[in-house]
Design brief:
Elements lengths: L3 H8 L7 H7 L2 H17 L6 H25 L1 H6 L15 H22 L2 H25 L3 H5 L1 H15 L4 H24 L1 H7 L4 H4 L2 H23 L6 H22 L3 H6 L3 H29 L6
Helix pairs in contact: 3-4, 3-9, 3-16, 4-6, 4-7, 4-9, 6-7, 7-9, 9-10, 10-13, 10-16, 13-14, 14-16
Length: 314
C-alpha cells in the first residue's frame, strides 16, 4: 500500500481544505481532456441523445474521471511528494488529507456510475466503472510501480472516454468507437515518454520504473518512434470510417506527418545536445502531442457538423 501516513505525519502542515483544493484533487486538466473526447464520441455517434440526457451523460463521465483522479492522488501521495511535477498536489501538499481523498474518490465513483446508468444505459455505466477500476487499481496500484510498460497498458484508462460517449448514445460498441479508443491508446506512450525524457530524475527519485529509468533515454527515444509509426494507421483508419471524411483525413495526414517527423528528430537526437538545450525538442514534441490529440477529435466533431449540413462525410 502507498505509505501516505508517514509522509503526512512528518511534513504536512495544518490546512483547512477549500473548494479549490477539492477541485484540484479531481485533476481538472485531465478531466477536461476526458470530457472533450467523451463529448466527441457522443456527438459523432449515429444516434442523437436529447440535450438533457447528453449533458447528464457528460457530467457523470466527468465525475467518474474526477473520482479516478482523487483515488490516484490518494494512492500515489508518497510518489507525488518527491516529484517536482506533482509535489504541489493537494494530498502531498497537506491541503487535503489522504482519507478525505479516498472518501471523495469512492463517493464520486459510486455516484457517477449509478447516475450514468440511470441517465443513459447499463453498458455505458459498466464501461465507466471498469475505467475507474482500471485507472485506480490496475494502473495506479499495480502497473505504475512494477513495470516500464506501465503507461502502455495503463493508457487504456484514458482511451475509454470516447467509447463511453459512443455507448451512451448507441448502447453498443462499434468499429468507430474502437478506433477512437485505439487513437488515444497508441498516442499515450509517445506522449508520456516524451515527458519522461526531460523528467527522468523525478521518476528515478520516486522509484517509478518508467522506461527512461529502466532502459535509458536512448531506448525510450526508439520506443517513441516505433509507437508513433504504429499510431499512424490507427489515426488514418479512424478518418476513413463513418465518423471521418475528407476534412478529417486531411487533418490526420498533416498531423501524423508532423508527429512522425518530431519522433524521428527525437530518436536521432544526441543526448549531449539534448542536455545542452534542456530537452527543448522533447518538450516541443510533448506540447505538440496535446495539440495532436485535440485536433484529431476536433476534426471528428467538425466533420459531424458538416455531415449534418449535407456537405461532409464520405
Amino acid at each position: 500500500m502507498s505509505d501516505t501516513t508517514a509522509y503526512h505525519g512528518a511534513t504536512a502542515t495544518p490546512h483547512e481544505p477549500g473548494f479549490g483544493d477539492y477541485v484540484q484533487l479531481l485533476k481538472p486538466r485531465v478531466m477536461s481532456l476526458v470530457v472533450f473526447t467523451a463529448l466527441v464520441g457522443l456527438l459523432v455517434a449515429p444516434v442523437a441523445l436529447h440535450p438533457v440526457e447528453a449533458f447528464a451523460a457528460i457530467l457523470f463521465v466527468a465525475l467518474g474521471a474526477g473520482a479516478s483522479g482523487a483515488l490516484n492522488m490518494w494512492w500515489d501521495a508518497d510518489i507525488d511528494a518527491v516529484m517536482q511535477r506533482t509535489a504541489r498536489r493537494p494530498v502531498p501538499a497537506g491541503k487535503v488529507q489522504a482519507g478525505e481523498a479516498l472518501a471523495v474518490g469512492l463517493a464520486l465513483s459510486g455516484i457517477s456510475v449509478v447516475m450514468l446508468g440511470l441517465a443513459t444505459n447499463l453498458m455505458a455505466a459498466a464501461l465507466l466503472a471498469f475505467t475507474i477500476f482500471f485507472y485506480a487499481v490496475v494502473y495506479s496500484m499495480w502497473l505504475k510501480r512494477t513495470t516500464p510498460q506501465n503507461i502502455v497498458i495503463g493508457g487504456a484508462a484514458g482511451a475509454f472516454p470516447p467509447m463511453i460517449g459512443w455507448v451512451c448514445a448507441t448502447g453498443s460498441v462499434s468499429v468507430e468507437a474502437c478506433l477512437m479508443f485505439g487513437l488515444i491508446f497508441m498516442w499515450t506512450p509517445p506522449h508520456f515518454w516524451a515527458l519522461a525524457l526531460f523528467m527522468k530524475e523525478d521518476y528515478h527519485k520516486a522509484g517509478v520504473p518508467m522506461l527512461t529509468v529502466t532502459h535509458g533515454r536512448q531506448a525510450t527515444r526508439l520506443h517513441i518512434l516505433v509507437y508513433t509509426l504504429l499510431l499512424v494507421p490507427v489515426a488514418l483508419g479512424a478518418a476513413l470510417t463513418s465518423i471521418g471524411g475528407p476534412l478529417t483525413l486531411a487533418v490526420a495526414v498533416a498531423l501524423n506527418v508532423w508527429f512522425v517527423i518530431g519522433a524521428w528528430r527525437i530518436w536521432t537526437r544526441d543526448e549531449t545536445v539534448a542536455e545542452a538545450d534542456r530537452y527543448a525538442a522533447e518538450k516541443a514534441f510533448f506540447r505538440f502531442s496535446l495539440l495532436y490529440l485535440f485536433l484529431h477529435f476536433a476534426a471528428f466533431l467538425v466533420e459531424a457538423a458538416l455531415k449534418s449540413a449535407g456537405i461532409g462525410g464520405w
